[in-house]
Amino acid sequence: MDVDALLDAAAMVLVLIGALLCLIAAIGLLRLRDVPTRLHAATKPQVLGLMLICTAIALSLRSWEVVAFLVPVVLIQLATAPLSAHMVGRQAYRNGTIDERALVADELRESRETPPAAGG
Length: 120
What we know:
Radius of gyration: 20 Å
Order of helices and strands: HHHH
Number of domains: 1
Oligomer: single chain
Number of helices: 4
Shape: elongated
Distance between the termini: 70 Å
Structural class: mainly alpha
Largest sheet: none
Strand content: under 5%
């Protein structure tokens, strides 16, 4: 078995694992019952799945130009997925759609109970 065949086999395995992680994320969004668990399912396996698929693409095409294109894609995904999950979770908390009894620590309670300062 030569190096090209080994790299192609590794790329196929990475694509399969990445696709399964993205599928698990999609199923988690549909099946999980509350916002925090849905956010967990939407961010963690999806980002890891994308990283594995991008790694497989880089291994398969074996080009530095492709790697230079995929690195910003992964970095942008790593930057935006936690930020969007944070914003959705905070809005769900403000709307009252999160079961507050299930929270271990409620660090936002004070900010919700304290009215904003008037006049700046």
